[in-house]
Amino acid sequence: MKDKVRLLDIDPRGWEHPADKAALLALKQLPGFDDAVKLLIGLTTEKSLRLLSMASAVRVSDRQFPRVKRLLEDACYILDWPQRPEVFVAQSPVMNAGASGVEEPFITLNSSIVEALDDGELLTVIAHELAHIMSGHVLYKTLLWILLNLTTGANRIPLSDIALQGIVAALREWDRKSELSADRASLLVTQDERVVYSLLMKLTGGIRGEMVLEEFLVQAEEYEQGGNVLDSIHKLLNVVGKSHPFPVLRLKELKVWKDGGVYDEILSGSYRRRGDASDLKKELDDAVREYREELAGTKDPLGETIQKLGKAAQQAGKAAGEQAEDFFRQLFGGNKRD
Question: Who contacts 60 (Cβ-Cβ below 8 Å, separation ≥6)?
Fold first, then answer.
């Protein structure tokens, strides 16, 4: 720990992906939205998930999984996060982890990931989940879960099936971008890109494979820019419904962010602090602009086509947004727009 930079008072918005940041800022500008969602989740899902973890998983402590507890403390120390979330280890052969809850978020690690990873890689996973908590992602991830389970009551909600699918699709896209934000935070904690890259490669090819980073990056580049528009449509269909981007793309995205200079700026002390004055409207505009610039630089043929069609789709997007706003207002007790 002595050779790592501690990021005192760092604000998560300093590392968040622009698409993640834009979506969250837009939601936060809906009056009372956060409070309504917290109330809905707090009365149902959060208590249920915590009781489930207490009954079916092992709570990390000084005596149970002390290595995990030590790594959590390291992550909290580097990101200067005073609230130590509880961690549970659940029996599962699937290498996965997650963060749940609202008022008292907690982390769950599957037993296979604890057993398979070395300290650096496991620290990466824990830092990733801690970042979701710090950014407030858990609230909206749970909202997505609720919407995905509304199908049985679709006739009772004031929104068409098509519009509901559109909202879910938009939240899923945000969800995937939130994973890119958390990847950036995990790199800020490990402060060693090869550790994070190694983890992403293991998530792709298993823990016993003979893998070479340089070859994996070539594979990522080939996937990103190869083929025609039809190939790009297949890529899009492959990711629809996924909660995470594919590891090969996560590695590429993280490398681009690191090489872009923001990572070094943060470690040198040039970053946003918690409590700094903020202008939500300006932040939203900046985040949208950054994301548009990112999309404009895509090498994917479908992405280029979407850019050309963007202006023609603006009016349709505005209408869909108004319908979504009506849905949220009615769902949480508000009134329709005049």
Answer: 68, 69, 72, 86, 87, 88, 89
59 — phi, psi (to 5°)?
-80, 130
Catalytic residue annotation:
129
Provide the whole-model pTM. 0.76
**In-domain check, residue 6:** no
Within a domain: residue 7? Answer: no
pLDDT value at position 19? 78
Cβ partners under 8 Å of residue 285, min gap 6: none
CA-to-CA dists, residue 181 to 78, 130, 153, 304, 311, angstroms: 17, 11, 33, 24, 28
Is residue 70 a part of any domain in this protein? yes
Structure token digits, residue 30? 């809906």
Residue 36 tokens read as 């309504």
Within 10 Å of residue 126's Cβ, how many Cβ atoms?
26
Average pLDDT of span 178-202: 94
> What per-residue string of b and e applies to 211-220 under the rule 16 or more CB within 10 Å gives b?
eeeeebeeeb
Q: Tokens in use for 295?
A: 């999309």
Q: Mean pLDDT over residues 239-264, rounded?
A: 80
Domain range enclosing 151: 12-331
Q: Are 74 and 123 in contact (CB under 8 A)?
A: yes
- Whether 2 is in a domain gets the answer no
Number of domains the chain contains: 1
Q: What is the pLDDT of residue 246?
A: 75
